[in-house]
Each structure stands twice: as C-alpha cells, then as structure tokens.
Amino acid sequence: MNSCRLATVQKRVAGGILTAALTFAAVACGTSSSQPSLRGEVAATANPLVAQYMISPSRDAQVAVEFGLDTSYGFQTSPQPTPSGGGSTTVLVAGMQQNSTYHMRAVVTFTNGGQVVDSDHTFITGPAPAGRIPTLTVTTPAGISPAPGVELVGLNPGTSNQLRIVAVDPAGNLIWYYDYDTTLGTATPIKLLPNGHFLVLLSPGLEKAGAVREIDLAGNTINQFTNDDLNQWLTTAGVNFQAFGIHHDFIAMDNGHLLLLVSVNKSFTDLPGYPGTTVVQGDAIVDLDPSLKPVWVWSAFDHLDVNRHPMNFPDWTHCNALLYLDDGNLLLSVRHQSWLLKIDYANGQGSGDILWKLGYEGDFTLASGAPADWFYAQHYPDIISPNSTGDFLLAVFDNGDNRVLDTSGTTCGSAGAPACYSRPAVFEVNEAAHTAQLNWAYPTVYSFWGGVAQELPNTNIFFNMSTPANDSTGARAMELTQEAIPQVIWQLEVTGQNSYRTIHLPSLYPEVQW
Predict the structure, then answer these.
(1) 246/265 Cα distance (integer angstroms)
(2) Is residue 9 in a domain?
(3) What is the Cα–Cα distance from 200 to 6, expressed in whole angstroms?
(4) Which of 94, 130, 220, 246 is least surrounded, with the fewest CB atoms within 10 Å of its CB?
(5) Residues 108 and 160 in one domain
(6) What is the pLDDT of residue 208?
(7) Bridge partners, residue 358, by sequence
(8) Domain CATH for 321
(9) Phi, psi of 181, rounded to the nearest 5 degrees
(10) In this structure, are residues 263 and 282 in contact, taking their beta carbons and an 8 Å threshold?
C-alpha cells in the first residue's frame, strides 16, 4: 500500500471568479492490479518556475501531481483527466520558488477508485528574468501567520521593464510569473479559469483597444481575440455600436459565455454646460456565446442620464467591475457615478433595465444617514455572503474620490475641506427594503484609483491599494482582522510599480487550497 493525499472540495463562485476551499485527508492508496506500474517523466517548460509532468495511464483516470521541497510534498495540482480511454497526459506544475530542487509525484485515480502513485521525481527550477523581478517586501506586524494561499499581483509599468504579472506565496517569494510583450499593455485584470488556465485582458491604456488572451501556466497562448475582432463580431450581429476598447473586467461564465466590459463613445450637442459637440465616453456590456457571437448587449447610454456626472466628465461612467448574481442578473460598478447597478440580465434574456442603484443619490437609504459613509469612485465589489441577492453582504474598495462629506455637498479635498481617504468597507444590503448599512471599514491613506477588497475564509479582509498617497509610485496589499480596531496580519509593499489589482487566491489551481 502506498500513502497519498486525497481531497474533498467545497466550491464557491463569486462574480464569475472561481474561489475554493480544499480539505486534505490522509488515506491509504492501493495500486491497481490491472496496471501494477506506471512511470512518469518530468521536463522543463519555457517558464523556469513551471514543470510539465507527463504520464500515460492505460485507461480513463484523473491525474494530480503532489510537489514540494521534500518528499512530504505539501502542495498539489488540480486533477486533470486523461484522454478518453487513457493515454498521454501532461500536468503543468506551478507554484515553485526560483533556483530550488522540488520533489514531485503523480497520483493517478481510475474511474473505479483504484489508484497508482508514481515514484518520486526531482525538478530544479531556474531563475526568473534577471533584473526584471518586481521589488516586493512582506511583513507580518502582528507575528501571526497570514491566510494560506497565494497573491496574484497585476502590475503597471515600472522603470526597468519589470514583470507585470507575478504570484507570490505568503512569505513574498516569487512562485510564478507570466512574461509577455508589454507593448500589448497591462493586465486589467487576470483571472483563474475553472480549466486551470488564466484569462488575461491586456490593455495598452485605460479603455483603449485591448486583447483577451487565454494562457496556460507555462505561458502558452491557448486562444486570443482583439478589440478589432470584437467589433467585426458586433457588426455581423447587427449591434448598433462599436467598442472603443475592452477594459477593466470580464466574467467567464459556467455556461461558456464571456461577458465583457467595453467603452463606447457617443457625440452630444449642447449638453447643459457643454456648448457645441461633446464626445462622451460611456460603457457597454457584451455577452459572447461559446462561439464568440454577441448574443446580448447593454449600453449605459440607453439607461442612465448623461447629465449626471459627479467626476471626470466626459469620461462619464468608467465602469470597472462586473459580477454575476445568483438570481441570474448582473452587478456593475460604475466608478464615475459612484454607483453599483443591478442590471436585468436574466441569464441573457433580460431587458437590461436597471433594477436598482446602490450608492450616494441612488435608490437605497443608508442607515447612518451620513453621505460620507457611502463608497465613492469604488473598485472591486465582492459579494462575501453565501447569497448575492436579498439580504447580502458586500465588500468594496472605496477609493473616496470626491467623497461627499455632509448634507451640504462638501467634497473631500475641496477648499477648506478635509483630505480624501480610501478604505476597504463591508456593507449589508437589503434589496427588499432598499436599505444599506456600513458594517465595517478601515480608513487609510488615499488611493485615487484601482484596488481590491476581499473577505478571506478566515473572515479577515484582504485589500489592495493601487497608488497609496504616501507611496504614489508603489502599491500596497494588506490582510487585517475584521474588528472594530483591526489588527494588521500581513502587508505587502510593492516598490516602483502600481497595481490595478492584487488579489488573494487559494492557490494557482482551481478548487485547490495550499
């Protein structure tokens, strides 16, 4: 009998982004009598931190690879199916530090429950590109271990052609990166897919052009399309707008559809306060079916008042996040309106009507009645309760741009007013009563754009500041307790690069917790 580790999985899908918790259990694994021996091979890939493990079961099976710095392993990939009837199967192994010797072995599970555990193999990782590794510093101020998992860091250009997409472990060690032609732009964002690949939106500038690329862990491009491709599909489908650019967010749906945020320009004549012709930049949502055909579209110009513009008009809406809700509708973050909109999507059959607007001057009453308690110019709303409709909990990164401080409409940073500040915040939202309550917040230095707020499985809050005011050329991420007086558990400082999104993941694999 060989000893191996199996896993029971609990999966949670929030806003189309796969997250999961995994519980390992030590069990005895027997060797299948019909295949008494099975020997795999390990080879390098183009990424020096990623190995490919090749093995050929003779019949249908699932293959996972255990790996670690010694033969206790400690890490595991997601199971991957063999071809029908068995055959050569390659598992990419990622999550390893530079210049280190790793042990790994495959665990092959057949459809009848029998298992074969391969013998141990070693793999020596190489170095990441010299001189291009981002400067990352981790501290644990409270002396308490942070939440397990990895941080996926999406970075903006630095001064030395640094890498733009990296993953680090809780100690700050580089364990994965994706190197690409940076003239294509910055990752806004990158998301882990249920198939183990990553989907990356590369944009050379906010709301300009853009390409959507699916990659594997070794950095190989699996599929890609551009903004030009999208516009051809929109024309063929008879849609009455063209996308100025794909930007900020997307949802890879379980049914194979892909929902995109795109910028749309529209000209207006003699808007109040804007004589002559004004080109207004708004947003649209495009739903692509599995064959990449547009099957449902939504435009802000059809549903919002173009004369409401709290900030940065004629960049009118500047949407930055899109979530799928458990009733089949969508939640859209409209940064330049300081609103979250619930949109009637109805799994692609909806009218597109705005069902409600959450935020200052929206449809909800805030329990405190204080305008300053709302979020402003927000990023990354994240549903943190099991349900995303009815009475639910919502985390959001509140950037605080143009925060309204009182009932007179005084805004932060205006003459004689206090300076602006940012914060991760948690709200309780009741759809039926149209009420909202600020349950928790952590006011901190001002970060005028970007950012993330997540609740971790241990109930701590993880958040990312793209451009903290006290380090405007860097970025910061923190894990802290969700208490009245929060305790900082973990902090990451990025020197010389901003970060649109740094998010916490359970691992580099779907449905696996490290």
Answers:
(1) 13
(2) no
(3) 31
(4) 130
(5) no
(6) 56
(7) 340
(8) 2.130.10
(9) -70, 105
(10) yes
Residue 249 φ then ψ, to 5°: -165, 165
Closest Cα to residue 98, out of 172, 215, 176? Answer: 176
pLDDT at site 319: 97
Provide the pLDDT for residue 182: 86
- With contact defined as beta carbons under 8 Å apart, do 460 and 395 qualify? no
CA distance linking residue 505 with residue 510, whole number of Å: 9
Residue 482, SS3 per DSSP: coil
The domain of 39 spans 31-124
Q: Extract the tokens encoding 392.
A: 């639910």
> Mean pLDDT per segment of 10 residues, for the chain of length 514 residues?
38 34 32 60 98 97 98 98 97 98 98 95 96 96 96 93 96 97 88 97 70 97 96 97 94 97 97 96 98 98 97 97 98 98 98 98 97 98 96 98 96 96 98 98 98 97 97 97 97 97 97 98
pLDDT at 210: 77
Residue of 294, 270, 258, 265 lying closest to 280 (CA atoms):
265
pLDDT of residue 183: 83
HEC readout, 54-89: EECCCCCEEEEEEEECCCCCCEECCCEECCCCCCCE
Which domain-ending residue is among 124, 145, 179? 124
Q: Tell me, yes or no, whether 81 and 161 share the same domain.
A: no
Rounded to whole angstroms, the Cα distance separating 83 from 198 reads 22
Q: Does residue 238 lie in a domain region?
A: yes
Is residue 166 within 8 A of residue 174, CB to CB? The reply is yes
Helix (H) or strand (E) holding 229: helix 227-236
Whether residue 352 contacts residue 329, with contact meaning beta carbons closer than 8 Å, is answered with no
pTM attached to this predicted model: 0.91
Structure-block tokens of residue 424: 């991760």
Place of tokens 């559809």: 257
